Amino acid sequence: MGYRILEPADVPAYLNERGHWPDPSDIQVREVSDGNMNRVFLARSTDGTRRLAVKQALPWVRVAGPSWPMSPERADAEARAYEQVAKVAPDKIPAILGYDPENYALVMEDMSDLEVLRTLLNEGASYGPHTSARIGEFVAQLVFATSDFGMESADRKALLAASVSPELCKITEDVVLAEPYIEHEHNHWHEALDDLATEFRADTRLRTEVADLRHTFMTSAQALLHGDLHTGSVMVGEREGAPVVRVFDPEFSFVGPIGYDLGLYWANALVSEERARALGSLSDHSDQLALSWEAFESEFRALWPTRIDTFFDDAYLDRFLRRIWTEAVGYAGTEIIRRIIGFAHLTDLTTLPDPVPASRRALLLGRELIVRRAELTNPHDVRAVVEAP
Ligand code: SR1
Ligand code: MG
């Protein structure tokens, strides 16, 4: 039949045809598309005992429309990433029930009993003790297993080739790692930030450091990444009295620098902290970078003795972790900046009564993280920069 864009009314027959739903007359469907890129539908039976989610990639960027075409093959990358994570961290992703490559559609567990982390934080919730630790572990488990330490050389080369994702990488290379530092039609910002946007475009030191991070993103094939690990890609909640953390939406997945995933999470945590500071509602925000890094490092170190290639010794592990740390600090800076003067902004800031003071603080913090990343060697150093007046 070929690729067809699903509308809510198509979903019952679609799920039935694909073998996911026996009685298509007993199904209620609602669209809950929220991210920048795709459409998501939730289906439930009248008594609520059967519930599924369908995510479909469109041939364009959803929020831009057909004027920004984008191959729906990004759904293949997402399905591949889920497959890899399912081998090493199945408890940290939604259950995937099927992938339909013809329609670029994933059928997965409905997680509507959980909440998007960003939404909760914007409503004033705290992280609690588990969320960032689980994220740190998630990154370590995925990247160790798909690095040259966790995977046989030939298998890794095959993964690397299969995970090449030129269009999605180009989005990141452009909207995150270039456009905010040049004049570009995608960019927009609050008019009270004009001076900083202009200053950043003229800052040659900043530009060279971003160029370095951009080139590392393009060339450093360390491990399979989530690729877009912001707080809108994490769901949290409780099931049967136990905390649940689920990472979703890995469509930007590719084999790249490990620090990119950590840096994205940190940036979004730091922006959320600026929101809380502006509203006078700081809670456990300041702990999150350290918690996720410590969990990442400890899990990675725990996996190290299982490495396949023992030419990599313990001294190399220390060096490798330092490199990941430094790059993550830099990527955190780029993510903060692009979310304020680039294409895709964050509701953390845009929904503040006055977004300007928090946005200014965040922009300046972003620049510091990029240009001083080599001298910020641990979470305390970063904290000192965050808390500097
Ligand atoms: C054109 S897409 C802009 C952003 O949305 C996605 O969620 C990624 O973060 C991307 O950079
Ligand atoms: Mg997304």
From TrEMBL:
Residues 29-282 form the Aminoglycoside phosphotransferase domain. Gene3D superfamilies: 3.90.1200.10, Phosphorylase Kinase, domain 1 (3.30.200.20). The keyword Membrane does not apply. Keywords: ATP-binding, Kinase, Nucleotide-binding, Transferase. Homodimer. The gene is mtnK. The lineage of its organism: Bacteria, Bacillati, Actinomycetota, Actinomycetes, Kitasatosporales. Its EC number is 2.7.1.100. Pfam families: APH. It comes from Streptomyces lacrimifluminis. This is S-methyl-5-thioribose kinase. Belongs to the methylthioribose kinase family. GO terms for biological process: methionine biosynthetic process.
